[in-house]
Structure formats: structure tokens, C-alpha cells
TrEMBL record:
It comes from the Bacteria. The chain crosses the membrane at residues 7-24, 36-54, 66-89, 101-124. It comes from Geopseudomonas aromaticivorans. The lineage of its organism: Bacteria, Pseudomonadati, Pseudomonadota, Gammaproteobacteria, Pseudomonadales. Keywords: Membrane, Transmembrane, Transmembrane helix. This is Uncharacterized protein.
Length: 132
């Protein structure tokens, strides 16, 4: 994969993972004076997801196997779907209080599933053909 495409994927996936981890699990945990814990955990998860994506996109995921291709596609499209569904309604209709739920419950998981399916077809197309 080209370096420019990898950087664009990182710019989408890392913030998506950060906001997803910050808002979804820590919304139910009363941290009161310790909000820095949620920020630290979300930052750690975002950095690990970015590192995973950066390593997995070197040389193409099809060379590494089916699981690598599917997880890379799922992470990339899931992050894009989450960002589009979460930030899109915030930008277009800032008064709607349930707009970001679109990214959390519909476009993020749907992008994750479609990315996994797309990674499977990418692997089918680019895998090494055995010599007969």
C-alpha cells in the first residue's frame, strides 16, 4: 500500500478509536475527578490500533494471510464508518442530540463488517497462486 494511503488511514482510524474508547466504555464508569484515566486508556488504544494498522499495511495484507487481510480491512473501514457517522451528524445538525449514535451503532459496526468482507475478497484476489 502506498505511504500516502497509509497516512490517510491513520488520520481516520486513530481518532476514531480514541473517541470510541473514550466515550463508549467510560461513559458508564463514574470517574469523577479522574478523567485522565479515560484519556490515557483511549490514547493507548488509539496508538496501538494505529501501530497495528501501520504494520499490517506494509507490503499488502494478502501476503500475510486471510486473517491479516480481513482485520486490516475491518479496522480501516470501521474507522471510516465510525468517523463519518459520528462526526457527520455533529457537523450537519449540531442541535440533534442523538446524531453521534449513528456512528456508534450503525455506520461503525457496518463499516467493520464490510471491511472484513472486503478484506476477504482482497485476499482472494491477491493471494499467491500455487504452481501446478
Amino acid at each position: 500500500m502506498h505511504r500516502f494511503a497509509r497516512i490517510l488511514l491513520l488520520l481516520v482510524v486513530v481518532p476514531a478509536v480514541y473517541f470510541f474508547v473514550y466515550w463508549l466504555p467510560f461513559d458508564f464508569v463514574p470517574l469523577e475527578q479522574r478523567e485522565w484515566v479515560a484519556s490515557l486508556v483511549a490514547l493507548l488504544c488509539a496508538v496501538l490500533a494505529g501501530r497495528f494498522l501501520w504494520i499490517r499495511t506494509v507490503g499488502g495484507a494478502a501476503a500475510r494471510g486471510l486473517l491479516a487481510a480481513m482485520s486490516s480491512g475491518a479496522l480501516a473501514l470501521g474507522g471510516i464508518g465510525f468517523c463519518a457517522g459520528f462526526f457527520g451528524p455533529l457537523l450537519l445538525t449540531p442541535d440533534a442530540n442523538q446524531g453521534p449514535l449513528l456512528g456508534l451503532f450503525i455506520t461503525g459496526p457496518l463499516g467493520f463488517l464490510l471491511g472484513g468482507i472486503g478484506g476477504f475478497f482482497y485476499w482472494l484476489r491477491h493471494r499467491d497462486k500455487p504452481l501446478s
